[in-house]
Amino acid sequence: MAQPITDMSGGLMETTKPASEQAFSRTREEGTGGAPRADLDALPIDAATIRASVERAATVTAVLPQYQDLVTLAQLLRGHLHLLLPDAQADTDRLNRGTALWHQRQTTIDRTRRTLAEGMGHGLLSAAMHVQELGRACGFLLSWHGESR
Known about the structure:
Radius of gyration: 15 Å
Mean pLDDT: 78
Number of strands: 2
Distance between the termini: 29 Å
Strand order of the largest sheet: 1-2
Strand content: 5-15%
Structural class: mainly alpha
Largest sheet: 2 strands, antiparallel
Number of domains: 1
Helix content: 55-70%
């Protein structure tokens, strides 16, 4: 489904929503507050789309975009994270509990869940920093996803 989306500079671009954004939109519309649902497990991980979102998130504090652009990017990143987290947790659960690798990954997963639970704040800088944190979490979880496949 093609929809016009405003890019960071305010121009319109025609694009198709990736599966993770569609899933996030569905969960928001159905009143689950963006919480992951069982049918999200059936969606494919679109690594190229997630990488592009991570790259966008990494640059949002260079020149601060409009707040609504940050909201849109945060929603996209949240959708990606809801797709990546179940696999990341399952892979981490298979590691030897208590090892350095297990601890590092579990700590990152826990921090990601806390970040998802937090709001963006009302200021432009706090929103940009929140989006960057979501982007970093996506990058970590995506890199793990590639290792386990």
